[in-house]
Amino acid sequence: MIFKSQFVKVSIVGTLVASSLLNLAQPTFASGSEQNTASNDEIAAYGNTENPKNIIFMVGDGMGPSFNTAFRYFKDNPDTQEMEKTAFDDYLVGTQRTNPHDSKDNVTDSAAGATAFSSGHKTYNGAIGVDENKKTVETVLERAKKKGKSTGLVTTSEVTDATPAAYASHIDSRDKKDEIAKQFFENRIDDQHTVDVILGGGAKYFGSANDNIDKKFKQEGYDVVSNKDELEQADGDKVLGLFADKNMPLQIDAPDDDPRLADMQSAALDRLSQNDKGFFLMVEGASIDKAAHANDVTGVMSEMGGFEKAFDDAIAYAKEHEDTLVVATADHSTGGLTIAKGKDYIWNASAIHNMKHSGQWMTEQIAEGKDIEETIQAGYNKYLPTQTVKAIRKEAKKLSKIKEDDERYDAQYQKLQDAIQKTINDESNTGWTTYGHTGEDVNTYAFGLQSEKFYGNIDNTDNAKNIFDIYNQE
Ligand SMILES: [Zn+2]
Residue 474's pLDDT is what? Predict the structure, then answer.
C-alpha cells in the first residue's frame, strides 16, 4: 500500500510537470528556438525516479505522423463536430529522429531502425543487431534476460523479420532469415534461451526446410502452436506461436481463428508477468508498413486499428501494474501517406469504412486467378465501373504472362495492385509519393515509470539508451 500511495502522489506531480513542459516544448518544435527546450535530465529531475520492472516497447512499423492523424480521421464519429482522440493521443510525449548511419542512404530501413531501438547503435540499412563494422552489439532484450527477467517478441510479420530479429539475433543482413531463426534457438544468455515468448508469422523458417527448429523448441519445453485456440489452451511459460507461413494476413482479411496483435500481446503478458523480476516485451504492428509499401490505404487503416487496440491494452496493463513502462513509436514513415491529395480539402475516410478487404487481399486473389469482378465486388462491397474493371483486367493479364521468379514480376504485381486500389485512393482522396520509406521524425507515446526519459525530440537510439539506463540503475 505504501508503494501505491507513493506512486499516486508521484504520478500526479509527474503529470503536472509533464503537461507544463509539453506546453513549453510545443512552440519549440515550430520555432526552433533553444530556450524552451527541456533536456531529458531536467525532466528526470522533476519526474519519478523509480524504475519500472516491466517494459512494453511497441513499434508501429512505418507509422509516420500522418498515419496517426489519418487514423484519427478514420475513427472520427461523423455525428459530432469535434474530432475524437485515438487511444494514442493522450500519451504523445514527443518525436524522434530516425536517420541511419549508412554509406549510401540517409533514410532508414526497419533493420537499422530496429537495431537503433534494440541496441542504441546507429548502423547501416539491412543490419540486424550489428554495428557499422558488422560487430555484434548487446540488445536491451538480452540485458533483460541477463537480469533474470522474462522476454518476448510479438509481431504481425514473420518473427524473423527485421524488427523482432534485431532484438535477439546478430547478422550482417536482414535477408538471412533461416540464420535468424537458427539464432533464435541457439543464442543463449547464461545457458538459457534468449526469448521466452515468440509470436507472429514465418513458420516456413522453423519447419523441415530449416532443420525443424520448431521441433527443437518443443524438445526444450516450449509450447509450439499455430492457431488462436492452441495459443489459448497452451499453459507453459514459454511459447513459439507461428500463425502463418510468411506474414500474417491483414486484420481486415484474417480468418477468425487467427489471433490478432492484441491477442498475441495478451498471451505474451499472461506468461511474462509470472516472473517476479519482470519482463521486456517488444510488440510490433508490422503490417502498417507492409500495407503502406503497396500504397494500400485500406490495409493501413486495418493495421492501425490492430496496433491501437494493442496499445490501448498495454496502457490498461500498465495502469493495473504500476511497475510497468509502455513506449510506442515508429521506426520510420512509409509510402508518403498524404491526407488529401490534389486540390480538394477533403480526406474521405468513409470510403475506406465501406471496404470489406484490403487492396493486398484483392491483388492476391486476382494474381491466383480468381474471378476479377467477383473479387473486386467482394473487396469494395460494390460494383466498380466497367472501365475500371477493364484496366484491372489488363494488368492482371500482363501479370499472368510473367513467372513469379522473373525479375519483372514484383513491379507488374504492384501495377495490378495500383489498378485495384486506384478507386479507393481516389474516393478517399489519399495521396502517396513512394513505395519506399520516408525520413520525417516520428511520434513517441509513453506512459508509466520513467516515461519522462522519452520526452521531447529524441534520437531513435535513445530508446535503447534509456532502457539500458533503467537496467543499469536497477
Ligand atoms: Zn518498410
Answer: 87
